[in-house]
User: Fold this.
Amino acid sequence: MTDNTGRVAVVTGGSGGIGRACVERLAADGFSVLVHYSGAKDRAEETANALTRAGVPAIAVGGDVADEAAMVAVFDTAEKEFGGVDVVVHTAGIMPLAPIAQMDLDTFDRIQRTNVRGTFIVDQLAARRVREGGAIINFSTSVTRLQIPSYGPYAASKGAVEALTLILARELRGRDITVNAVAPGPTATPLFFEGKSQAVIDQIANANPMQRLGKPEDIAETVAFLAGPARWVNGQVLHTNGAMA
Assistant:
């Protein structure tokens, strides 16, 4: 086990779903946590306040991940409130779906702005500010392997995230900072359930040899591993999907 007392984690998209599960798991492991949000201020503050009442230093801070000034402010706040940053977990992203032939370019550009530019900005700041012995954890998706129709623009953005992750790991040579990506499979979050019938949900769950959807806590388990004891895992994409792909 790794002693995380005094260590600080910034979790983007920490207001719900997988992000919130990561916040709660890292807090349980001893981290002070900055809960970043984009639009869900109430949920983020509720999460941070619950941790504070439980004795865990936590704060909620908003900002567009693709806005450099906003994200500089997030890192500034973490350093001011907690003294530094040791782990960055970048879960924030969007997933509009449509066949490639039908998606309008404005939606495509919005996906790339949030998922690619947002990852680049967060990773750049993390590379400059994360302390020695820290970890940068990006989020990809198992859809890059599954090749599901209608996911093309989203999968393309996550392919870019994987490329940034693998290269940044090599660029931080000598810093004792690991850089990895987690690629979840279908996970039981509000975003996943949106627009799907129960029959479709059951079909997706049964396609997995575990015969269930992933849970946010399953993904947070991998994040906790990368944030803590996994010092020899670096420059990797971990497909956390129960053998879906």
